[in-house]
Each structure stands twice: as C-alpha cells, then as structure tokens.
Amino acid sequence: MLLLREVCTVVSRRSANLGAAAIASVLNRIREPKMIVGVDGSTYKYHPFYHFWVTEKLRDLVDPGLEFQLILTGDGSGKGAALVAAIADKIAKGVPPSTTTHTPDGVNKLLNKQNGIVPPNKRNSRRFVSESLTGQN
User: EC number(s) (predicted)?
Assistant: First the structure.
C-alpha cells in the first residue's frame, strides 16, 4: 500500500509540474504585471496538494515581478475557463463590460450554449427547444 501511495504522489506531482510549466510559459509570454489564471478539473479541485504544487512550481518558473493568481473555475468542461478568468479580471479592475456577453449572466448563457447545456428553468419549454433549433434567442 505504501508503494501505491508513493507512485500516486510522484505521478500527481509530475502532473502539477507539467501543468505549471505550461501556465508559466503563457504568463511569461503575456508579461502583464498582474494576471489571473482560471483552472478547471477534478484533480485541481479535489487533490489535497495539487494547488500548492502548481503554485510552488509557478513561483519558480514565472519571471520575478509578475504576479499571478490561480482561481478555480466551475464551468464543468474547461472550455470557458480562459473566458471566465478574463472576465473576472475585468470585473475586478472595475472595467465596464463592453457587451452583454461580459456580464456574469451573459457568460453563463454563452458557455451553456457552447456546451449544449439547457438551463434548468427552460428544460421543459417548447419555446426553448424551438429557439435552440432555429438559433434565435
């Protein structure tokens, strides 16, 4: 049992390091003074040390002077993680949304449309099905 635990720890740590390397290369390329990174996934969410390992490795790999923050996004598929992080950053900076898509409700509608998710209040609505088929909102 101890061997299995050690193997799981090594594999998890390696995964965190590889993810951090990818994130660090993007952060170093963007070079904004303060950046927010949206992260999604079960491992990041439920593993007790994963966030710590990713953050620790990012501190080693990201250029000094660049600040970053990792936030857990909950969109379920990961397709909207970058969009949610960008919008959260704009909202945090007090920048007014440029379109209705940039409001939290608009983002949810956009992500749900992309992922084929039917909102709970419209699941049994014939009008919603008709709108979905015709592409009208």
Answer: 2.7.1.-
Q: What are phi and psi of 69, to 5 degrees?
A: -140, 130
- Residue 72 CB-half CA count within 13 A: 12
What residue type is assigned to position 116 of the chain?
A: G
How far, in Å, CA of 58 to CA of 24, rounded? 6
* Segment 19-58, tens digit of pLDDT: 999 999 999 999 988 898 888 888 998 999 999 999 999 9
How far apart, in Å, do the first and last CA atoms of the chain sit? 55
Q: Which of 118, 116, 111, 117 is nearest to 38 (CA)?
A: 111
Transcribe 36-103 into DSSP letters. EEEE--HHHHH-TTHHHHHHHHHHHHSPTT-EEEEEE---SSSTTHHHHHHHHHHHHHTPPPSSGGGS
Q: What's the rounded Cα separation, in Å, for the pair 29 and 9?
A: 30
pLDDT by residue (tens digit) across 55-72? 999 999 999 999 999 988
Number of Cα atoms under 13 Å in the Cβ half of residue 98: 3
